[in-house]
Amino acid sequence: MHVTSARWDAAADAVDPSLIPQRHLYTGATMPAIGLGTFGSDHVAHSVVAEAVKAAAQVGYRHFDCASVYGNEDQIGLRFEEMLNSGLAREDIWVTSKVWNDMHGEADVIASCEKSLADLRLNYLDMYLVHWPFPNHHPPGCDVSVRNPHAVPYIHETYMRTWRAMEKLVDRGLVHHIGSSNMTIPKMKLLLRDARIKPAVNEMELHPHFQQREFFAYLRENGVEPVGYSPIGSPGRPQRDRTPEDTAPTEDPVIVKIAERLGVHPAVVCIKWAVQRGQTPIPFSANRRNFLANLRGVISEPLTAEDMKAIESIDRNCRLVKGQVFLWKDGQSWEDLWDIHGEITPP
Ligand SMILES: NC(=O)c1ccc[n+]([C@@H]2O[C@H](COP(=O)([O-])OP(=O)(O)OC[C@H]3O[C@@H](n4cnc5c(N)ncnc54)[C@H](OP(=O)(O)O)[C@@H]3O)[C@@H](O)[C@H]2O)c1
User: 185-222: buried (b, 16+ CB within 10 Å) or exposed (e) per residue?
Assistant: First the structure.
């Protein structure tokens, strides 16, 4: 393993990165089992998120979940550059980025990846994801009622054209792995059937109130690592992404009780559960105390078997990121995006 230079300015209270559990991808590569999210939910300034990335690296984070649509890759790139110039080796960090929905054409995928690389000031990405399986663009920050008049349903042939471009990025060495996000079992079955280069991860919403048990098991059986977004239940998400039915895992009495016993915030219990269950959570935080507590949570005493069982029992099937803006015709409900009847929702 590469040894980071002593010049690298780790914080005195940093977690030793070698203690962080690793996920073993089907390619033989290892990926740190917790990453830092970088979507500021429209209210945390790009410069503050970038600052958090560097501070998180100083306390031991080695995995960063970025995306072109978050609008902050150029600022994060300046921080990566500082980190890599001060003794951290490129192979010590794991960087993910994602192609946005308006860039699904073959040439666009390549151009988008090259732009992310330039912004992030890197010459390769560890992981590149198709952010959503729908090529339906909507303006960042728009209300959930906004619809793209040219929106289309999931069309597998179209998705595979995008995937072929993703595979070319691997062939060209611009990215080491490719993966999907916001998929469903029926869509993933087709992708696994037709991919020349299999997805190494699927990024998806996962927290104690939305455990996606069947999909989770399917992914692991097929050698695709589940990466869990909104692992704390996204308490800072924009107002436009909230509905009255939404529940908050951090307020669940089971989580609160375990947190009180351990003397930690309920968010930390969500993160411990996620890593112990076998997914890779990517919690966002711009607050040093919180992101350090989350990282400490994964190297400290594990939850007990009873805790794990109790948390398993509080699933509410409560999807928070519903994706309404991707609907393609009038009269649909957001459930149509998620193939809840076991087959791809017909056009
Ligand atoms: N692929 C996709 O389509 C997709 C979709 C959504 C998100 N994501 C990715 O997943 C990441 C995480 O998801 P998310 O940001 O929606 O939600 P999240 O990680 O579940 O929640 C983040 C919120 O939790 C708070 N928090 C974090 N640690 C805490 C702690 N120890 N104690 C108290 N509060 C804490 C943060 O506040 P403070 O800043 O105050 O700590 C922030 O408001 C995103 O940043 C993004 O990278 C991907």
Answer: bbbbeebbeebebbbbbbbbbbbbbbbbeebbebbeee
> How does DSSP assign 47-77, residue by residue?
HHHHHHHHHHHHTT--EEE--GGGS-HHHHH
Whether the CB of 290 sits within 6 Å of ligand 1: yes
Q: Output the pLDDT for position 1.
A: 43
Rounded distance between C-alpha atoms, residue 304 and residue 281, angstroms: 19
Nearest CA to 58 among 8, 10, 5? 10
Q: Which residues of the chain have pLDDT under 70?
A: 1-7
- Is any ligand 1 atom within 6 A of the Cβ of residue 247? no
Which CATH number fits the domain that encloses residue 205? Answer: 3.20.20.100
Nearest C-alpha to atom 14 of ligand 1 is from which residue?
A: 230
In-domain check, residue 326: yes
The set of catalytic residues is: 70
What is the value of pTM for the model shown? 0.97
Structural domain count of the chain: 1
- pLDDT at residue 269, rounded to an integer: 99
Cβ atoms 182, 325 nearer than 8 A: no
For residue 157, tell me if it sits in a domain: yes
